Amino acid sequence: MTVQFELDAQAVAARAEALGGPAFMVNRRKVAAELAPTLALPKVEKIKIDKWDFVSGDVELTKHDGLTPEIEALLGDHRTNVLVERNGHVVYNELVTPEGVLFMGINEAMEQHPELVEKYFMTEGVRVDEERLSALNAALMNGGAFLYVPKNVQLKDPLQAIFTMEQANGALYHHTIIIADEGSELTYIESFLSNTNEPHTVNAVTEVFAAANAKVVFGGVDQLAESALSFMNRRGVVYENARLEWALGHMNDGNSVVETKTHLSETIRSQTRKRSRSVVARRSKTSTSGRTISGSHQKVSS
C-alpha cells in the first residue's frame, strides 16, 4: 500500500488496522492515523520542507534473508550483541549478555513483552500529537528495535544495530525504544544504510529512557543515499542523576530533517516546579540537504 502525499486518512487508517498486534498498539496506530492529517510538519529554520514528499512510498517492504556484503563489512568479526534488520525485518540477532537484558526487533518485543512496549511507546519521549511525521511513524511503523537493560546491570560491551533500506520507492517507518533501568549502564551503536539508488523514504523515531542513576552512551551513524528522503527524530528522557550522551554522525547525501533532543522526565520536572528551580534544556534541530555532522551531549542531575 502506498500513502499518497496528500495524506489519504482512510488509507493510513486501513494500514494501521491491518498491522494488528496487541490491542494497545492497534489503538495507538488508529489515533495516530486520525491525528496525522491534522498536524503540521516539523518546524525547521530557514528551509521550507512543505514540498518534500515524506509520505509517498510503499510501506509493504520485501523481506530478505542473510547479510549483504556491506553489512558483513560493518560487522567484521563482531557477531555478538548484534541486531540487523533489512527493510524493517530482523535477519540477524545474537545476544550474549546477563540474564534479563532484552535486545530484539520492535515487532518481536510487542509479541514477547507487550507491557514494556505499551509503557514506553510514545508516552513520555516523543508524543504522537507533536507533529505530522512522528504521528505517521506511530501509525505506519514497519520496523524498529527494542532494548531493555535491567536495574543495576552494567554492560561492558556495546550493543550494535544495523538497519538497511533496500527497496525502491519503499518507505521505512522505524521506531526504536531503549530503556536503561535504575543504576544500569549501556552503550548502543546504530547505523542506517541505503542499499538502493532509487527514491526511498526513512522515517525514524528513537526514544531513549535513562532511569535514576543510569548511564547511556548512544552512538549513531546515518549514511543514507542521495535518493533517500529522511526524518530522524531522536529523543532522550532522563531521570534523577542519570546521564545520556549522544555521539551522532549525520552523513546522509539526500534531503534530511534531523532532531536530537534530551529532556527531564515528567517526575523530575514536577519536583523541580515544586521547588521553584529553573532548568534549561538543550534543543537542536537541523535540516540538511547534503552532508552534515552533528552531535550533542546532555547530563542532568537533580
Question: Can you offer a commentary on this structure?
Answer:
With 302 residues, this protein is an alpha/beta fold. It has helices at 9-18, 23-35, 69-75, 106-112, 114-120, 132-140, 266-274, and strands spanning 82-86, 89-94, 102-105, 143-149, 159-165, 171-180, 185-194, 200-210, 215-223, 228-238, 243-250, 255-264, 283-289, 297-299. Strand 1 and strand 2 (89-94) form a beta hairpin. Helix 4 (106-112) packs across helix 5 (114-120).
In short:
The protein is an alpha/beta fold. The protein contains 7 helices and 14 strands.
Calculate the terminal CA-CA distance, rounded to whole Å: 48 Å
Oligomer: single chain
Assign the structural class, choosing from mainly alpha, mainly beta, alpha/beta, alpha+beta, or little secondary structure: alpha/beta
Strand percentage: 35-45%
Q: Residue-averaged pLDDT, rounded?
A: 86
User: Compute the gyration radius: what is it?
Assistant: 18 Å
Question: Major beta sheet, specifics?
Answer: 7 strands, mixed
Strand order of the largest sheet: 2-1-5-7-9-11-14
